[in-house]
Amino acid sequence: MGxxxxxxxxxxxxxxxxxxxxxxxxxxxLSRFEEEAVVGDRTFSLYCCQYPGKLVDDGSRYLEDFHGExxxxxxxxxxxxxxxxxxxxxxxRQAVVVRYRSDSALxxxxxxxLAYRDYHxxxxxxxxxxxxxxxxEFRSKASxxxxxxxxxxxxxxxxxxxxxxxxxDQFTPGVLTLNLTPGEWAPVxxxxxxxxxxxxxxxxxxxxxxxxxxxxxxxIAGYPWFTDWGRDTMISLPGLLIxxxxxxxxxxxxxxxxxxxxxxxxxxxxxxRGETPxxxxxxxxxxxxxxxxxxxxxxxxxxFLRDVFYPAAKEILGWHVHSADSHDSLLSIGPQLxxxxxxxxxxxxxxVEINALWHGALCLMADWGKTLHDPAExxxxxxxARVRDSFRSSFWNPRRECLYDVLAPEGxxxxxxxxxxxxxxxxxxLLESAQQQAIVRIVERELLTPVGLRTLxxxxxxxKPRYEGAPVERDGAYHQGTVWPWLLGPFIDAYLIAFGRTxxxxxxxxxxxxxxxxxxxxxxxxxxxxxxxxxxxxxxxxGCPAQxxxxxxxxxxxxxxxxxx
Length: 565
Prior knowledge:
The chain has 565 residues and is α+β, with helices and mostly antiparallel strands. It has four domains: 16-191, no CATH class; 216-300, no CATH class; 324-438; 447-565, no CATH class. Helices cover 31% and strands 26% of the residues. Strands 1, 2, 3, 10, 12 and 13 form a six-stranded antiparallel β-sheet that branches. Strands 6-7-8-9-14-11 form a six-stranded antiparallel β-sheet, with no helix packed on it. Strands 18-21-22 form a three-stranded antiparallel β-sheet. α2 packs parallel to α4 (284-297), α9 packs across α11 and α11 runs antiparallel to α12 (503-522). It is elongated. The two termini are 29 Å apart. The relative contact order is 0.08.
């Protein structure tokens, strides 16, 4: 992870961040290369680095072009000599390849800079440059001239902007010297597992799909800092795997989370170092029902439903029924258990999307019970009807003609948030047609932006237009106006359910996706979509630069509505 200019602005920017217990225990090992190209009697420095009060930026002046395909590729013009540089990872290995090609003979001097630290921390000089971690090995035709030394006070300015510590020291073992033959690639492979250089991988797959140490697939919620979260995984499955026809891995992921269910709940997070999973989510399990629905619609084996998921689902819903309010059959939860999970949005009580998902799970169980000839079908269908009736009578806000966000113990919360859109986007007839249209219209008018939905309307006194500053300021804005691109998927579903799939409406919704993709390409992570955006112009991408459900929801709706071409 890095920048096109080659300047590391974050502690997470590096050539090799190794996962010692996949997909966790990540360590920044190889931070960067500082390359110098010797052409005749001239030397061209191709690197960038920030020190206190000084930006060393010799490399960008020679940069002619950058492309993300077939892998990250830089092209330099060194006074008429053309030099290419490519960077790519080796699938299944703890290894990165950096390779070079020139149209003229030249010599490269490559100085590796090592951090050797946990990816959340920063390093400071000491007597042990490798910090007890596996030593990095370089495999290439280059020769290494040992010259061990520390470089001090390297700065990451984005960390400074975020109110975090931002200076570190890095170690370099020496200089690799590599002579280039015109027209031939010369690779350098850095690894901790003895990997030899290879060609760039030919197959393309979403980088969010990875394999655990036990060989099972899982989905990373976002790069660089998230791991595999239950809620994010279940929301991302349809777009990342099912839309691509990868039903086998999708099933394995669902089975993997089912394996760890506890009292009707699947984990929300597997901690970095393999501790007990965390069950701090009320919706991950309910989203799993929707993932299975889409998996079956895509051609998934009914035997998996009959033999694996349906029996587990009956147990899961048994726990949910036990915890539902006996008066209205709606689900009530504690604080910070929804996807809006900061202390500034506790949402304790009966959140609108939790109960829309609850109704959806009951409808699915009734349909699946009928398919599998389970007499419990009638009970599920009756309970779904009770939830529907309670939902309509309790959540409808007649003053604004939309839904309350939460039915709190002290009364309904009338804040206008996007969570109500799921009461329309889920295909189970939870609301009347006129209610669906009214909800979509108010969300469109007050929350829709070119890059997703705001999390709070602008007129609300708690509204925050920008996501910036120190951690406490950012947390305060996370769900108080900040835009989330992934919500564009359910908004499009809701719009087309409420107003129909006419050519005009399909064209309008396709334009929303095109707008998000154009904005992401203009300023964001190359080939990906950010976690969040500022609520007001200029809308800078914030949070994780590459977020699974942002990418997945775009992929899903493009597949669902035939917009892939």
